[in-house]
Amino acid sequence: MSGWEQIIMDPVKSMLEKVAVFIPILIGAIMILLAGWVIAKILSGIVQKALEGLKFNDFSSKIGLADLLTKGNVTLSSAALIAALVYWAIMIVVLAVVVDALGLRVAANLMEKISGYIPSVASAVFVTVVGMFLARLVSGIVKTAAANANLPRAEFLGSIAKGAILVFTTVIVLEELNIASFFVTTTFHVFFAALCLALALAFGLGGKDLAAKILWDFFNKQNMNK
């Protein structure tokens, strides 16, 4: 073999050897992708049917989740949305396996970080649903109790209770998602402290006559018992 033939044939031979090694890997990656896609479709369909069977859409309407999705221009139902989240969670894991099999280290590291974030997203969704349910439940309890006690503005008191639980839920969700957790937590603490101070001042200024009467009656009883 002459020098020119060696210069030309060696790179071509090396390239063909690399292609021969890469083709089975590529075929395997495509098979993993197709199998993962099928599994994601099946599992997401099962989740949606299970949630619809459990009347999750009706439940989401009662706690206000459906209205929230409508305001956010989300056309999917609550059950379909969770099923879509399950589908994409599986597909992200599958894509992470595929890019790792192809030896794309940068993409594999990125997909690994994204797939590692999935449990936080699932936890945030669960906390959101539970928080909205508790907010509606506690709001109803507060309104009913206030109305039965003949307290003024029972509806307003119920709204305050609901808003407080939703704010607390939002803080937990943001911490689960690791979105500016320190800033959010500090802001919440400052807001909560300011709210408590405002309520204390409002009660102190508005109920000072009542507090004085209670203390006066208490001291009178103590003096009478002596």
Strand-helix topology:
Layout: H1 3-53, H2 56-63, H3 65-71, H4 78-101, H5 105-116, H6 118-148, H7 154-176, H8 181-206, H9 208-225
Helix pairs in contact: 1-4, 4-5, 6-7, 7-8
Structural commentary:
The structure is a single chain. This protein is mostly helical and 226 residues long. The protein has a domain at 1-116. It has helices at 3-53, 56-63, 65-71, 78-101, 105-116, 118-148, 154-176, 181-206, 208-225. Helix 1 runs antiparallel to helix 4 (78-101), helix 4 packs antiparallel against helix 5 (105-116) and helix 7 (154-176) runs antiparallel to helix 8. The chain is elongated, with a radius of gyration of 31 Å. The protein starts with a helix and ends with a helix. The model has no long low-confidence stretch (mean pLDDT 74).
Oligomeric organization of the protein chains: single chain
Distance between the ends: 124 Å
- What Rg is obtained from the alpha carbons, in whole angstroms? 31 Å
Number of helices: 9
Mean pLDDT: 74
A few lines on this structure:
This protein has 226 residues and is an all-alpha fold. The protein is 88% helix and 0% strand.
Question: Which terms summarize this structure?
Answer:
elongated; mainly alpha; 226 residues; 9 helices
